[in-house]
TrEMBL record:
InterPro entries: Glutathione-S-Trfase_C-like, Glutathione-S-Trfase_C_sf, Glutathione_S-Trfase, Glutathione_S-Trfase_N, GST_C, Thioredoxin-like_sf. Residues 1-82 form the GST N-terminal domain. It comes from Papilio xuthus. SUPFAM superfamilies: GST C-terminal domain-like, Thioredoxin-like. Homodimer. One of its GO terms (biological process) is glutathione metabolic process. The gene is LOC106119401. GO terms for molecular function: glutathione transferase activity. Transmembrane segments: none annotated. Pfam families: GST_C, GST_N_3. This is Glutathione S-transferase 1-like. Residues 90-213 form the GST C-terminal domain.
Length: 226
């Protein structure tokens, strides 16, 4: 039986897992979950994933949440020799990839979530100046990470790039990368956007996510005028 992924295409972390599974040639069964409607809050799913987040992977009686943990598990279990450059065995390269994954988890995605949460909660009508400052600060850090390598942890694409790309796709749609200020980040984003799996899996969901957030902000703005 194939592993089951609870996901929605608009979710950046879900798209990370979907792209890594695709790269590994792994067929996942998919179950659509609408986080806005809190479909993940059922007693059954809460027991499996107390964080009540999307995505979640279920394989036999094993359940795993958080996209970063999921892709590391999938790589450890299903990767073949031709995939090793995505997460090489060299300890320092692997540590660098891990750090970039933790950056996505602990810094970058929370700055996106700080925009998403009040938007979905019906409160945010436009991105505030403080939110923009936080996003710009994250762009600054990514620009520095790209100082010595073409990609975030190496001169080849790794799991870190795939994970960060899904978060950045939405952030760039809400507050675009300034090419003059962040030339390396802009080039990295363009390079990642050209990857076949990004075009096929990430781009449609990213467009859906951006459109949904902007539409909700406009709806919240109109509602606030009533």
């Amino acid at each position: 039986m194939s592993p089951l992924l609870y996901k929605t295409d608009a979710s950046p972390p879900a798209r990370t897992v979907m792209m890594v599974a695709d790269i590994l040639g792994l067929n996942l069964d998919m179950k659509e979950i609408n986080p806005v409607l809190r479909e993940q809050d059922t007693p059954e799913l809460t027991k499996k994933n107390p964080m009540r987040t999307v995505p979640m992977l279920e394989e036999d009686n094993f359940c795993l949440a958080d996209s970063h943990a999921i892709i590391l598990y999938l790589f450890d279990k299903y990767a073949k020799s031709e995939h090793q450059h995505f997460y090489p065995s060299d300890k320092r390269k692997r540590a660098t990839i891990n750090q970039r994954l933790f950056f996505d988890c602990g810094v970058l995605f929370p700055r996106l979530r700080s925009i998403m949460a009040p938007t979905y909660g019906g409160k945010l009508t436009e991105i505030s100046k403080s939110m923009i400052r936080n996003v710009e600060d994250a762009y600054r850090m990514l620009e520095i990470y790209l100082s010595d390598t073409l990609y975030l942890a190496d001169d080849v694409i790794t799991l870190a790039d795939i994970s960060v790309m899904t978060t950045m796709s939405t952030l760039n749609g809400l507050h675009s990368i300034n090419e003059k200020t962040y030339p390396k980040l802009k080039q990295w984003f363009n390079n990642m956007s050209q990857q076949e799996y990004c075009k096929r899996i990430n781009e449609p969901g990213s467009k859906q996510h951006i459109y949904g957030l902007k539409t909700l902000m406009e709806h919240n703005k109109q509602k606030s005028k009533l």
